[in-house]
Each structure stands twice: as C-alpha cells, then as structure tokens.
Amino acid sequence: MKLAAAFLLFTAFTLKQDNLQKLAAVDVKGLDGKIVNTGTFSNNGKPIVVSFWATWCAPCKKELNEIAEVYEEWQKETGVKVIAVSIDDARNSPKVKPYVEQQEWTYEVYLDENQDFKRAMNVNNVPHTFVLNGNNEVTWQTNVYNPNGGVEDIYKHVKEAAAAAEKK
Predict the structure, then answer these.
(1) From 30, 73, 88, 153, which residue has the greatest number of CB atoms within 10 Å?
(2) Angle subtended at Cα 65 by Cα 63 and Cα 71, rounded to the nearest 5 degrees
(3) % of the chain beyond a pLDDT of 90
C-alpha cells in the first residue's frame, strides 16, 4: 500500500512539473468598477506580464514605474501586455486609481480587493510578477523586487515567451 501511495505521489508531482500553471479564472474589478474575470485576459497569443502590487508597497511601485519607462519599447519588440493587479483592500483601493493616473501608467489595472486572485495564484507577498505565454500559462515568476536588473530579468523572460510563440 505504501509503495502504491508513493508511486501516486511521484506521478502527481512529475505530471505537475510537466504542465505549466494556467492563469486562474477569478473575478476582479477594473478601475471603472466593472467586474472582469481573469480567465478572459488575453493578448492574441503574445506574452502577458501580471504584476501583483499594492499602494503601500514601495518596491512594487518602483518595479511598475521602471517597467512604465520601457513599456512602449517592450510592446514594439514583443507585443507584451502588462496587467497590474492591486491587492489593496476595500479601505485602501480608492487610492489606486489616483495613483495610477498620477504615474500615467498605460497598463491594464485591476483591483483584487478580496484577494481571491492573489490566493488562486499562490501569491504570498508583493511584488509578485508572473510572465505568461500566449496560452496564459506561467512560464516564469518572481516575488522580489531587484533594483539591480530585476526589470531586465522580467523582460528576458518576456522575450523568451515571445520567441517560443513565434516558433509555433
């Protein structure tokens, strides 16, 4: 019996390693107040960066501001779309839209006030950034802000996802 259980556990672990994690399908709120299901996020087969952040998280804001500086170039080269997901709760979420407008971010920004999306994606702390391929599968993730080349590292993985999509 123990051998069978060990085999099943090994098989499950091996299968999980072969399959990429899909983007969870959870309802979030747009800055316009409309509910959007994350399962509908798409970018015509091109990579997506999903960045979980909060208005109270200085490293999150630094990372997203650094990406904003190069976002247009990234889009031209790879077609990537950046989606910023605020985990601010209902008490703090009114601060999100003014902050985004002040920073002039051109990303799609959503509110995960109940943190359902955060939990579904196994996010424990912010910033937590995912790179998705054109099938909305996670190809890479990080849960730290690295002021010395972290944004370049994210883009390296975006380019890899874009190149893999072109080979198909």
Answers:
(1) 88
(2) 100
(3) 85
